[in-house]
């Protein structure tokens, strides 16, 4: 039986897992979950994933949440020799990839979530100046990470790039990368956007996510005028 992924295409972390599974040639069964409607809050799913987040992977009686943990598990279990450059065995390269994954988890995605949460909660009508400052600060850090390598942890694409790309796709749609200020980040984003799996899996969901957030902000703005 194939592993089951609870996901929605608009979710950046879900798209990370979907792209890594695709790269590994792994067929996942998919179950659509609408986080806005809190479909993940059922007693059954809460027991499996107390964080009540999307995505979640279920394989036999094993359940795993958080996209970063999921892709590391999938790589450890299903990767073949031709995939090793995505997460090489060299300890320092692997540590660098891990750090970039933790950056996505602990810094970058929370700055996106700080925009998403009040938007979905019906409160945010436009991105505030403080939110923009936080996003710009994250762009600054990514620009520095790209100082010595073409990609975030190496001169080849790794799991870190795939994970960060899904978060950045939405952030760039809400507050675009300034090419003059962040030339390396802009080039990295363009390079990642050209990857076949990004075009096929990430781009449609990213467009859906951006459109949904902007539409909700406009709806919240109109509602606030009533």
Rg over alpha carbons: 18 Å
Distance from first to last alpha carbon: 52 Å
Strand content: 5-15%
Oligomer: single chain
Morphology call = globular
Structural category is alpha+beta
Say how many strands there are: 4
Strand order within the widest beta sheet: 2-1-3-4
Proportion in helices: 55-70%
Task: Give the H and E element order.
Answer: EHEHEEHHHHHH
Mean pLDDT: 95
Number of helical regions: 8
Low-confidence parts, pLDDT < 50 over ≥5 residues?
none
Largest sheet: 4 strands, mixed
What can you see in these coordinates?
- This protein has 226 residues and is α+β, with helices and mostly antiparallel strands.
- Helices cover 59% and strands 7% of the residues.
- The chain is built from 8 helices and 4 strands.
- Strands 2-1-3-4 form a 4-stranded mixed beta sheet, covered by helices on one side.
- Helix 4 runs antiparallel to helix 5.
- The chain is globular.
- The N and C termini lie far apart (52 Å).
- The mean pLDDT is 95.
């Amino acid at each position: 039986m194939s592993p089951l992924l609870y996901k929605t295409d608009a979710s950046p972390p879900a798209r990370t897992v979907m792209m890594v599974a695709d790269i590994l040639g792994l067929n996942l069964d998919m179950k659509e979950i609408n986080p806005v409607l809190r479909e993940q809050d059922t007693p059954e799913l809460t027991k499996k994933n107390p964080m009540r987040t999307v995505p979640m992977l279920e394989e036999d009686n094993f359940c795993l949440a958080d996209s970063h943990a999921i892709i590391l598990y999938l790589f450890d279990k299903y990767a073949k020799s031709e995939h090793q450059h995505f997460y090489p065995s060299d300890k320092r390269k692997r540590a660098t990839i891990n750090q970039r994954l933790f950056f996505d988890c602990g810094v970058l995605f929370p700055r996106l979530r700080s925009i998403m949460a009040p938007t979905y909660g019906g409160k945010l009508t436009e991105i505030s100046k403080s939110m923009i400052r936080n996003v710009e600060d994250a762009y600054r850090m990514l620009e520095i990470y790209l100082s010595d390598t073409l990609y975030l942890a190496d001169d080849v694409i790794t799991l870190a790039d795939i994970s960060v790309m899904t978060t950045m796709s939405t952030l760039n749609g809400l507050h675009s990368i300034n090419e003059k200020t962040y030339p390396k980040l802009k080039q990295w984003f363009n390079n990642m956007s050209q990857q076949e799996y990004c075009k096929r899996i990430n781009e449609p969901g990213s467009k859906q996510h951006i459109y949904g957030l902007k539409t909700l902000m406009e709806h919240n703005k109109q509602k606030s005028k009533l």
